[in-house]
């Protein structure tokens, strides 16, 4: 009962913070900063999808950007070729998520039997294949020039787009939180910790990996959909390995296997990109801002080896165990 109470309290904390974020566009009208926060929400979703693989199942993928790109291109192509109505927006989202589900299923069946770095390299090759295909199929994707499209008028308003991204983030966070706390999530953690032992207990590992690969791919594709809608332009860079590496860094910096950690990591990395790139226009010292960003990343890894959220959780658990040990010691003294 005490554990249930703690879950409820943490849920209300997250909901309260989400409500506070919902007020931001109504009291703060800086469009560039609102756009930055929207990008944080979007890449928070993308990073959470990557955390399902890395943090909860122990799967390292270097090709996760292909699902992000499929989602972005799926909705972009539909809207670019049709009227910008709500019907075609929903159709575009369904096409994007459906394509991502099929591709992630096929990719999972073909690659997830491989181990560790072999799987990582093959996913990198698949993402590169999608990048080359997007560049060559100019009639469909616009090639390296990209696609410019129009969205329904309702979502052209920055506040409405902000609320859509925030609501999507909150819904996906709680859905994935429920998933990771379910029996499926516990099996995934068991696979991460000791795959051979999990198999010896009678679990078939491969179907679980394929299921989480599909879920992760669909969530990543939805992040790509929101990204395309937020900028109303898309090009082949969404398939670049840099996009996957960003998700990897967001997950590691925020805290692997925490869900809230990737959101924190997305906020830090996106704000660091924005802040340091602005400084590059102010002084020549900051022209190589990516080096400064690398230094920041190194410092975070040194002082927060388990990520920010993971380190905080670890410190809390240590304090809790110390208190419990003291209480047990007092009880033993009284009993003796």
DSSP helix fraction? over 70%
Give the CA-based shape: globular
Q: Using the coordinates above, name the CATH class of the largest domain.
A: Mainly Alpha
Q: What count of helical segments does DSSP give?
A: 15
Distance between the termini: 30 Å
Instruction: Output mean pLDDT.
Output: 87
- DSSP summary, beta strand count: 2
What is the name of the CATH topology of the largest domain? ABC transporter involved in vitamin B12 uptake, BtuC
* Series of secondary-structure elements, N-terminal to C-terminal: HHHHHHEHHHHHEHHHH
Work out the strand percent: under 5%
Structural class call reads: mainly alpha
The biggest beta sheet, please? 2 strands, antiparallel
Total number of distinct structural domains: 2
User: How is the largest sheet built, in terms of strand order?
Assistant: 1-2
Unreliable residue runs: 1-8
CATH architecture of the largest domain: Orthogonal Bundle
- The radius of gyration over CA amounts to 22 Å
């Amino acid at each position: 009962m005490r554990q249930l109470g703690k879950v409820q309290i943490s849920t209300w904390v997250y909901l309260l913070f989400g409500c506070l974020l919902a007020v931001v566009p109504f009291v703060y009208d800086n469009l560039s900063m609102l756009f930055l926060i929207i990008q944080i929400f979007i890449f928070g979703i993308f990073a959470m999808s990557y955390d399902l693989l890395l943090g909860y199942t122990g799967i390292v993928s270097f090709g996760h950007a292909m699902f992000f790109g499929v989602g972005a291109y799926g909705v972009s192509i539909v809207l670019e070729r049709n009227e910008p109505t709500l019907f075609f927006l929903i159709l575009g989202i369904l096409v994007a998520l459906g394509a991502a589900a099929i591709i992630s299923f096929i990719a999972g069946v073909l690659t997830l039997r491989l181990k560790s770095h072999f799987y990582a390299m093959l996913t990198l090759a698949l993402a590169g294949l999608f990048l080359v295909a997007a560049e060559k199929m100019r009639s469909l994707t616009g090639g390296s020039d990209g696609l410019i499209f129009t969205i329904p008028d309702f979502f052209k308003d920055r506040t409405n787009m902000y609320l859509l991204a925030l609501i999507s983030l909150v819904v996906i966070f709680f859905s994935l939180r429920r998933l990771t706390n379910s029996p499926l999530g516990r099996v995934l953690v068991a696979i991460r910790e000791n795959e051979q032992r999990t198999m010896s207990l009678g679990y078939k590992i491969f179907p679980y990996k394929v299921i989480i690969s599909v879920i992760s791919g669909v969530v990543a594709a939805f992040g790509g959909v929101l990204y395309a809608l937020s900028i109303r332009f898309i090009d082949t860079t969404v398939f670049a390995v840099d996009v996957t590496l960003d998700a990897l860094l967001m997950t590691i910096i925020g805290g692997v296997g925490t869900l809230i950690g990737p959101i924190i990591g997305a906020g830090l990395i996106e704000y660091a990109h924005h802040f340091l790139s602005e400084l590059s226009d102010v002084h020549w010292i900051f022209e190589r801002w990516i080096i400064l960003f690398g230094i920041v990343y190194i410092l975070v890894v040194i002082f927060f080896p388990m990520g920010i959220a993971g380190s905080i959780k670890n410190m809390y658990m240590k304090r809790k165990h110390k208190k419990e040990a003291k209480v047990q010691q007092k009880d033993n003294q009284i009993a003796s």
